[in-house]
Amino acid sequence: MVASLALTFAVTDVASAFAAPSSAIVVDAKTGKTLYSKDANARRYPASLTKMMTLYLTFEALAAGRISKNTPVVFSAKAAAEPPTKLGVRKGGAVTVETAILSMVTKSANDSSTALAEMIGGSEANFARMMTSKARALGMKGTVFRNANGLPDPGQFTTAHDMAVLGMALREHYPQYYGYFSTRSFAYGKRQINGHNRLLGRIKGVDGIKTGYTRASGFNLVSSVADGNRKLVAVVMGGSSGGSRDKQMASLIQTYMPQTSTRSSGPLVARASGDTAVAAIANVFLPKKNAPTPDEKPETVVASADEAVADQITAEDAVVEPAPEKPPARTRR
Description:
Blueprint: H1 2-19, E1 23-28, E2 34-38, H2 50-63, E3 72-74, H3 77-80, E4 94-96, H4 97-105, H5 110-121, H6 124-138, H7 160-173, H8 175-178, E5 185-188, E6 191-194, E7 206-214, E8 218-227, E9 230-239, H9 242-256, E10 300-304, E11 318-322
């Protein structure tokens, strides 16, 4: 019994040390200066913030001319079977690249993310390696990707700092596509699909970028704000609810926007040289096994697969999934 209690407390300590306190960072998007930081390098599950990198590589392929906005994205059996939230395309069906992008920035469609990954990378596994390779090239040293949509995987993790870097890179490197992140809704067939980012249109200057939620990650949000000559990127990860996360983000923007510079210091995020092709990722280090997790049996829970706020989950947005395993503690040096 004593051993059992000790294990219980140890598991609880790992979970609370990782997921209970939120992480946050605010960066001046003109100078790169960190204006606020709270556990910004703590390891976190990205949830649907993962789609930011999926979109970065999609924009890269568009800019290189390898695909166009009208290129058909065919949904494999795997893509079609992804849990909600999703666009709902059947196996063998297809949408355009632009529709896939819009479904990701609004509904955060998991099926569209997988379909794009398979088209660009040949397979989702190869695409995940491309994602991690690009993360390293951008200076995101605390990030590993295992899938294209952010559904639970104990070996997939990031930090608030790295998500801020990615947020700045998206605007700096692909301004011609960045406007997609401001999309609040779009028409798909006879449906009007609305977005999850509640700060768009409510907080002055907010023009994106992405929300995210799973049970293991808590409520995440990356926001980009442009107000006159001032710009910032802010990240909140591990919020206890969608409302509290949004309130914290709004407070950070209100507090630190006046402290940003009106003068640019030039590019802040290095653009990786060359194209991110599957053949170029052979030397990227990726863990061969999932990160170690506490030895406990998974329970069946109903959780939002994405960023739909927990107290507003609908039958369409809910998914039954194993309880996500606890993230690994960082090794002390």
